[in-house]
Amino acid sequence: LADMGQTFARWMQLFPNIARVIGYAAMALLGFAAAGAIANIVLGVSKLIKLGAIALWKTLTSVTKIYTATVWIASKAVAAWNLTLKFLRGTLLAVRMAAIMAGIGINLMSWPVLLVIGAIGLLAAGCYLLIKHWDDVQAAVMNTAAFTAVA
Fold first, then answer.
1. Residues of the chain with pLDDT under 70
2. How far apart are CA 118 and CA 114, in angstroms?
3. Distance (Å, rounded) from C-alpha 34 to C-alpha 88?
4. Sequence ranges of the domains in the chain
5. Which helix (H) or strand (E) holds 25?
């Protein structure tokens, strides 16, 4: 390796133009290597930033996904509530019809009792009116031909 370095130094003395071109080529090669290293660093940093951005994006989209799931669950709960209310409406209508029919049945069963009570009330009212207007009734009955024939 040392002999090769001495040979190279001697050629640089003997052929300065070739040495300059080789130097330029070496510098170009080192420049490409430096550009590649810089590109590698930039790509690494950008990948690191991208990973951070992806983590942030996933966090933010998870909030949106949770909200979407909440809205979906709420819509299903509202649909279940509406179904329950439809069932409850039918049930309450059936209970209402049963109560009305029971009222009609009780009313129909109580008609004879009400008729007897009404007849007693009318008889009492008739007796009251007869006692109150007894003189007028007696005078009207006494002045008839039928009562005169019987009396």
1. 1, 151
2. 6
3. 79
4. 2-150
5. helix 16-132
